[in-house]
Design the sequence.
């Protein structure tokens, strides 16, 4: 449930509409996610941590996650081969609604483009530049004693 933006947060983030919880070094089953944000994919009721990766060309989900959001995925687009830390991976680009539940301000939802990897995917949900970050104006606040923790500040969707 989103909280209103307080006067202190408004002063610090006057240009931003929504503040989303972010985590630095979020524990993950295979290590740590250096920068993670909570998101909801498609109509899934539960939020998941995803790697916010400004070095990733595309957002990525594996076949295990794709099974859960199958009915929410758009039609297959271009076939893509992408080099990842887990080797060369192939799949199709598909549209999928992603929602960032706001800690303060309105939730942020948009139709993003994901590479749905066909073979086993050892990685986490990855949020990348093309088809997602390029559609947002965002900034990071690593947090501190005066805040409720690290925040991803989102100003607006880029049309």
Sequence:
């Amino acid at each position: 449930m989103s909280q209103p933006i307080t006067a202190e947060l408004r002063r610090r983030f006057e240009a931003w509409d929504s503040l989303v919880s972010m985590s630095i070094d979020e524990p993950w089953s295979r290590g740590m996610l250096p920068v993670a944000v909570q998101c909801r994919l498609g109509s899934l009721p539960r939020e998941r941590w995803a790697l916010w990766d400004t070095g990733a060309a595309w957002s990525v989900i594996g076949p295990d996650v794709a099974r859960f959001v199958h009915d929410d995925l758009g039609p297959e687009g271009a076939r893509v081969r992408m080099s990842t830390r887990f080797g060369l991976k192939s799949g199709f680009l598909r549209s999928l609604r992603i929602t960032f539940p706001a800690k303060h301000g309105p939730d942020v939802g948009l139709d993003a483009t994901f590479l749905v990897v066909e073979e086993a995917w050892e990685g986490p949900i990855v949020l990348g530049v093309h088809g997602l970050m390029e559609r947002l104006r965002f900034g990071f606040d690593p947090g501190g004693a005066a805040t409720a923790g690290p925040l991803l500040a989102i100003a607006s969707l880029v049309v």
User: Anything to note?
Assistant: The two ends are 26 Å apart (CA to CA). The mean pLDDT is 88. The first strand starts at residue 18 and ends at 28.
